[in-house]
Amino acid sequence: MNRYPLWKYLIVLAAVLIGVLYTLPNLYGESPAVQIAGAKTAVKVDQGTLSRAEQALDQAGLNPTAGSFEMNGPVGTVRLRFDSTDTQLKAKDQLEKVLNPDPQNPDYTIALNLMSASPNWLTALGAHPMYLGLDLRGGVHFLLQVDMQGALTSRYDSMAGEARTILRDAKLKVEDVERNQQSVRATFATQEDRDAAIDTLRRAMPEMVFTTGQSGDQWLVDGTLSPASITQVQDNALKQNIQTLHNRINELGVAEPVIQQQGGDRIVVQLPGVQDVAKAKDILGRTATLEIHMVDDSPTAMAALASGRVPFGLVRYTDRDGRPLLLRRQVILTGENLQDAQPGRDQQTQQPTVNLTLDSKGARIFRDVTRDNIGKRMAIVLFENGKGEVVTAPVIRSEIPGGQVQISGSMNAQEAADVALLLRAGSLAAPMHIIEERTIGPSLGAANIKQGFDSTLYGFTAIAIFIILYYHLFGVFSTLGLSFNVLLLLAVLSMLQATLTLPGIAAIALTLGMAIDANVLINERIREELRAGLPPQQAIHLGFDRAWATIFDSNLTSLIVGVALLAFGTGPVRGFAVVHCIGILTSMFSSVVGVRALANLWYGRQRKLKSISIGQVWKPKQD
């Protein structure tokens, strides 16, 4: 009656072993570390970077206790762990000297960090500690202000080029089209030309509001974005900046950063565990944009380039090999028009290519530009930290319609993949600046951990003492089941790599109370069966079975609330809900399966069982 088959005991044993294995990394703490990431999207970090860093440290007599190379999506990072912060700082200085010989133009981001001190055998098994939130681990909190005027300026620059193309396709006479502060201004020689153009512009650009005017002998059309279009531009800029920040935070190796919108033009960034605040500010404030220009390879331009002069209307850049190029100042397309970039191969020549996908507006502009510039070169320029670099400058072979662009040239498959990653990495749609900065030291985080741990430990101890005194041996079973529940909860959180915060610790304490409630229901139900005169073995069996329905109903209602918090909550509320929901599931398993396994193991083989240790069973008085 009260005997589990062997497979059920094996399931419980496996759960205990998994719980111990995946909870163990949380007990080892963290060690100081140095992380290496690419400071430019064109710089790769791979296994060779790890070898180069270890060799540089070995020459300086600095030996890391562990080193690893990891791929975080398309971005590689190298992490080196040390036994002390003194060695960590010396290693950072040595790596800066070797890997970044030009401090003004660094190739790598070398940041201080913290790594788990778990043994290598645990890490090899995939057992990692939980992430700790900003309130427990310390770190830095930034509030960034997005320059929405800058986003609008970029948008008007793009629309000026689009208006120029529309008027040229319509064969309308126009003297000039340019951005005039926060508007697009077209200048005409006669009123008839202006009136004909304004109808065409209104049909082709419905998101703009056009007005007419006159300045001396010039007839003007000024176009401004409608309020709805301005809102859309600003929303898109905010979303693109948040996505780009996610990509950049990978360089710091921050576990579970918080990057979210606040209001209409601000972004909150929380970086738990970051020690190098200056490096974090540098990476977050980095500006990067993608632009497409036409290359001027005319004899006049080449002669000027050879003599070191830059003619009016052109600008000098260098490609990735350091060769100079003269580009026209007019921006044809920006990264705003690029939807995707993937490496591939030409179907005819099998040469490596980069395949671009443009949005509808970009496809239309690109079609017109390629039709009018066959045989000429087009340059894709990436601007980072205020410096522009030509990623590639292919020759236009034919008109390219449909927005599907194939770039080919003298590059191998790896270089094609690198260029695709470079173009896909994204850029800030609008400049940002930090308006608020708060740093939470590791000591404050450690104090929060200690207070949260102590409160949970004292609550567990008080519950254990009461339950053992009141239910005797079954109280011991309940206490062991409670320990099993905490073990499983921490193991699941570690396996999911969840972020633990102070609200999460509060949820663990709440889980203890809810888990012991299930054990109280089971124990009282067994007592009721004993009062009814049933033998102990039958009382144990019916007690567990009949308490299950009540346990399920009570936990289900709590789970519904937890799921609601998980679905609609944010920040600390969501963190609480994650631990709360997982805790409900682990408490049901530990109380119903784990505790029953202990009771069956202890009493199940005693055929002539006369009594059980479950405290005082008060029998009702007989009248």
Automatic annotation (TrEMBL):
Pfam families attached to this UniProt entry: Sec_GG, SecD-TM1, SecD_1st, SecD_SecF_C, SecDF_P1_head
InterPro entries linked: SecD, SecD-TM, SecD/SecF_arch_bac, SecD/SecF_CS, SecD_1st, SecD_SecF_C, SecD_SecF_C_bact, SecDF_P1_head
TM spans (from-to): 456-473, 480-498, 547-569, 575-599
Domain SecDF P1 head subdomain: 319-430
Every Protein translocase subunit SecDF P1 domain range: 238-297
Topology of the protein relative to the lipid bilayer: Multi-pass membrane protein
Keywords: Cell inner membrane, Cell membrane, Coiled coil, Membrane, Protein transport, Translocation, Transmembrane, Transmembrane helix, Transport
GO cellular component: plasma membrane
A molecular function GO annotation: protein-transporting ATPase activity
SecD export protein N-terminal TM domain ranges (all copies): 1-112
Subcellular localization: Cell membrane
Coiled coil: 160-187
GO BP term (any one): protein targeting
Domain Protein export membrane protein SecD/SecF C-terminal, residue spans: 432-594
Cited function: Part of the Sec protein translocase complex. Interacts with the SecYEG preprotein conducting channel. SecDF uses the proton motive force (PMF) to complete protein translocation after the ATP-dependent function of SecA.
Family membership: Belongs to the SecD/SecF family. SecD subfamily.
Cross-referenced PANTHER family: PROTEIN TRANSLOCASE SUBUNIT SECD, PROTEIN-EXPORT MEMBRANE PROTEIN SEC
Complex formation: Forms a complex with SecF. Part of the essential Sec protein translocation apparatus which comprises SecA, SecYEG and auxiliary proteins SecDF-YajC and YidC.
Protein name according to UniProt: Protein translocase subunit SecD
Gene name of this polypeptide: secD
